[in-house]
């Protein structure tokens, strides 16, 4: 498939030239248009001219490391971020996800697995918001699915697109316990393996932004052994 026919645009941020070339060749063979940036401190400038659908981001980079960059990217880029690193510790993965990354792979990564992860993230981005003709309102909280606007009292709450998807899923089924398996299948199209913390991290960020109690949450509750529950009665104050 020629680059003119490519359906997805990828920005690969990787300073290892040999690895970058291997990834570029493989992604292009699967119909993707790929551009490479080798320094972290030039990525934000690159985004002014190149509009990728997804960013593959190495952690160890000259100029600016990937974790610092990951924290800055949401102000410039609304698509998914896939972190790549030879450091596979849980701490690295949790920190990357907490800073806004959507997924994490450990290098060296199998090319077929990398394609599968990319396609999964792109499917999630393309998945339309559940069609609703009205906003959801719980006490002082209002959620508009069309503009993705959240208001809590007089305050507008800024959420990422992934945080909004999770909040909408929980709020549209308020009062019901949603299992992690259900949430993973609905939002990520994958099974929950009992270890992955993507949804836990997003729940934690939602609680902080929505004024929930982090130690004893009462608005988005954890039902141990079952999942999460959006409490409809907890938004009056």
Question: Would you summarize the structure shown here?
Answer:
The chain is α/β, with parallel strands linked by helices and 237 residues long. The protein has eight helices and twelve strands. Helix 6 (161-171) packs across helix 8.
Structure description:
The chain is built from eight helices and twelve strands. By secondary structure, the chain is of the alpha/beta class. The chain has two domains: 3-126, Rossmann fold, CATH 3.40.50.2300; 136-235, Arc Repressor Mutant, subunit A, CATH 1.10.10. A five-stranded parallel β-sheet has the order 2-1-3-4-5, with helices on both faces. Strand 6 and strand 7 (141-144) form a beta hairpin. Helix 6 packs across helix 8. The longest helix is centred in the middle third of the chain and has 16 residues, at 111-126. The N and C termini lie far apart (56 Å).
List keywords for this structure.
single chain; 237 residues; alpha/beta; 34% helix; elongated; disordered N terminus; DNA-binding response regulator; Sig_transdc_resp-reg_receiver; OmpR/PhoB-type_DNA-bd; phosphoprotein; DNA binding
Q: What do the pLDDT scores average to? A: 86
Examine the secondary-structure arrangement and name the CATH architecture of the largest domain: 3-Layer(aba) Sandwich
What count of structural domains? 2
| Main pleated-sheet profile | 5 strands, parallel
Calculate Rg over CA atoms.
19 Å
What is the string of SSEs from the N terminus onward?
Answer: EHEHEHEHEHEEEEHEHHEE
* CATH domain class name of the largest domain: Alpha Beta
